[in-house]
Amino acid sequence: MSTQGQVAVIIGGASGIGWATAALMAARGDTVIIADLDGAAATARAGELGGSTAGHQVQVTDETGMRTLFDTVTADHGPVGAVVDCAGISRPGTIADLSLADWQATVDVCLTGAFLSVKEAARSVREGGSVVLVASLNGRQPGVAMSAYCSAKAGVLMLAEVAAMELAPRRIRVNAVNPGFVHTPLTYGATLVPGLVDEYVENTPLGRPGTPEDIAQTIGFLTSDAAGWMTGAAIDLNGGAHTMRYPNIVDRLADMTAASSTNDG
Ligand code: NAI
Prior knowledge:
- By secondary structure, this protein is α/β, with parallel strands linked by helices.
- Helix content is 46%, strand content 16%.
- It contains 9 helices and 7 strands.
- It has helices at residues 16-27, 39-49, 63-77, 100-124, 147-167, 188-191, 196-202, 212-222, 249-264, and strands spanning 7-11, 31-36, 54-57, 80-85, 125-134, 173-179, 234-237.
- It has a 7-stranded parallel sheet, with helices on both faces.
- Strand 4, helix 4 and strand 5 form a beta-alpha-beta unit.
- 1,4-dihydronicotinamide adenine dinucleotide binds at residues 11-12, 14-18, 36-38, 58-61, 86-89, 109, 134, 136-137, 179, 181-182, 184-187.
């Protein structure tokens, strides 16, 4: 069955990479459902796109809420063709200092949310449809003070492979993308740490951070007929940063603290 004009559910679609993906998929004629923890933003974004786009509030870690979302979408728009999980948070902290609550919150949203997205896709996506999980460069490249995020995203990569095997008999494809540093509200805090983004760029062969549109283009491909023979794959989208090393946020924060105490003194 063709993916043309498919119903696409984008979880975490109200901001950043998810929003760029929603705009791209709506522009090519998909019926885009923007689902987000921030329900007001999801509705507002859907209004910006117009047409058959709709916005819904959802907590990606809530199994009942996710089930209701997919039941509603199916009742309103028919069978789902594509699910894209872009919901993510990051709570940095070295292992010695990271609270259990921050660890669990990160793993819940990033990994359990991906699990529930696939679980709902297994129930609601029609034959020939697809799922894209937004993992991360940090699923394969470690970063100091990023244990929860790195571990969760590594889990997402394996989840995509297992899901690809399990859903293949129904011809549902499951793939992942691994963005490197992309300017979005999620990474705004990192831009306030002097030198951090510069260090990323120094360790990026193509010499620039990514844009949400860089990632959306590949998600658009993975949810289209052009990717009809791809499943269980993870695509690195990071300007080549996976060939080098990730910035050390702890060192950069220490530099920042030292500079501010010098200025104070
Ligand atoms: P963002 O913060 O701009 O967008 C994330 C969206 O997810 C927001 O609209 C937020 O409300 C929603 N969300 C957060 N928690 C949620 C929850 N529990 N349930 C439902 N929705 C929830 O972030 P960005 O950068 O667009 O991130 C999208 C995905 O890309 C995330 O999975 C992130 O981990 C991943 N990623 C981002 C990178 C970056 O440099 N920006 C790099 C690598 C991966």
